[in-house]
């Protein structure tokens, strides 16, 4: 099974295998999307997205047809609920539907609903904690339609932020003492949105999404140099811009990005009992912008690093290492989705 991440900027694909000792990256690939094809996580042009999925599948060289896909966090309602531990599976389903109707502002026949039993409730042996997740049916069906039109079989529909956390938990396990006791801040900086997650011992304690991303930098390049959006985006990626770009455009953008991250951290401190973050992980397409990680570390006074979700993996024979080093942070969600292949 492959992981397929559809965002506003493009489509990313990852295939992993398990060697028995560690995971192996078999292939990865990406294809850009035209502006407006995906807006705020919603697929607005199914044909354009389908074409991009078909191209990325062929480019990757994979033979896998089963796909795990993700929904944007803003499109999904999640809620932890407490239910009696002695319910049968059927009774559990009925009870979840009853509880869900209290939290979901839509008729149940308009949503896709799922749940997972997390485990016993602390200090209450008779109860279990259950996570339920629900999203509008048409949002799932749009992604399913894209995959099927591209000749693929959608098998798992995850939540993008959950997939990203699965990939990060694997990296956290590689930290000293497995990251135990560390408060980790993950910032995924995409084209339109910056998503913050805070993890303590593998548990999510906070998340927040705010509108900020590489789109602002591209727009400034368009405005300053009179380029088309597509040309500005392409030249931004390869660094083919006039001499004044660094001081006039890039430096102010880096300051803004570092300020947005510092502001998000302050929201975390003021709305939770926590007063520190020990390590910042930067991911997403914007994470690799030269100078960003240094600016963030300097501004926040917290150790920061750009992460590769493939760290510690073997690399298959078809993987180009140089390309991987340059692009890996953008594949966090796709990698987490691909890891669903190994669910037991």
Describe this structure in words.
With 344 residues, the chain is of the alpha/beta class. 37% of the residues lie in helices and 31% in strands. The protein has helices at residues 46-60, 89-103, 137-149, 160-172, 214-225, 229-238, 245-271, 292-300, 321-327, 332-338, and strands spanning 2-6, 10-18, 23-32, 38-39, 42-43, 66-71, 76-84, 111-121, 124-136, 153-159, 183-189, 194-200, 203-210, 279-283, 304-306, 314-315. The strands form four sheets. A six-stranded mixed sheet has the order 10-6-1-2-3-16. The protein has a five-stranded mixed sheet with strand order 13-12-11-14-15, with helices on both faces. Helix 4 (160-172) packs across helix 10 and helix 5 (214-225) packs across helix 6 (229-238). The longest helix has 27 residues, at 245-271. The chain is globular and about 70 Å long.
Describe the structure using short key phrases.
344 residues; alpha/beta; five-stranded mixed beta sheet; 10 helices; 16 strands; 37% helix; globular; Fimbrial assembly protein; SHS2_FtsA
In the predicted model, the low-confidence regions spanning at least 5 consecutive residues are none
The biggest sheet, with number of strands, parallel, antiparallel or mixed sense and barrel status, is:
6 strands, mixed
Task: Tell me the structural class.
Answer: alpha/beta
Radius of gyration: 21 Å
Shape annotation: globular
Please list the strands of the largest sheet in the order they lie side by side.
10-6-1-2-3-16
Please give the count of helices: 10
Number of strands: 16
Order of helices and strands: EEEEEHEEHEEHEHEEEHHHEHEEHH
Cα distance, first to last residue?
A: 14 Å
């Amino acid at each position: 099974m492959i992981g397929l991440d559809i965002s506003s900027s493009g489509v990313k694909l990852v295939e992993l295998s398990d060697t028995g000792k560690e995971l192996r990256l078999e292939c990865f690939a990406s294809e850009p999307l035209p502006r407006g094809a995906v807006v705020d996580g919603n697929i607005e042009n199914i044909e354009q997205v389908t074409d991009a999925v078909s191209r990325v599948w062929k480019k990757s060289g994979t033979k896998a047809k089963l796909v795990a896909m993700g929904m944007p966090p803003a499109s999904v309602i999640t809620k932890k609920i407490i239910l009696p531990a002695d319910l049968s599976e059927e009774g559990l389903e009925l009870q979840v539907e009853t509880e869900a109707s209290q939290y979901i502002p839509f008729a149940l026949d308009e949503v896709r609903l799922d749940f997972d039993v997390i485990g016993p409730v602390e200090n209450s042996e008779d109860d279990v904690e259950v996570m339920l997740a629900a999203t509008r049916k048409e949002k799932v069906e749009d992604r399913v339609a894209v995959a099927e039109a591209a000749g693929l079989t959608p098998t798992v529909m995850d939540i993008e932020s959950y997939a990203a956390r699965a990939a990060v938990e694997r990296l956290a396990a590689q930290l000293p003492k497995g990251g135990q006791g560390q408060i980790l801040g993950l910032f995924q900086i995409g084209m339109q949105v910056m998503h913050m997650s805070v993890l303590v011992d593998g548990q999510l304690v906070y998340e927040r999404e705010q509108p900020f991303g590489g789109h602002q930098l591209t727009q400034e390049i368009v405005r300053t140099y009179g380029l088309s959006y597509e040309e500005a985006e392409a030249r931004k990626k390869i660094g083919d811009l006039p001499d004044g770009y660094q001081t006039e455009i890039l430096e102010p953008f880096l300051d803004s990005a570092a300020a947005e991250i510092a502001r998000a951290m302050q929201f975390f401190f003021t709305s939770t009992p926590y007063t520190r973050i020990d390590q910042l992980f930067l991911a997403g397409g914007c994470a690799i912008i030269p100078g960003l990680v240094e600016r963030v570390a300097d501004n926040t006074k917290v150790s920061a690093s750009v992460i590769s979700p493939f760290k510690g993996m073997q690399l298959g024979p078809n993987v180009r290492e140089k390309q991987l080093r340059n692009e890996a942070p953008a594949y966090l969600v796709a990698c987490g989705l691909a890891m669903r292949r190994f669910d037991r």
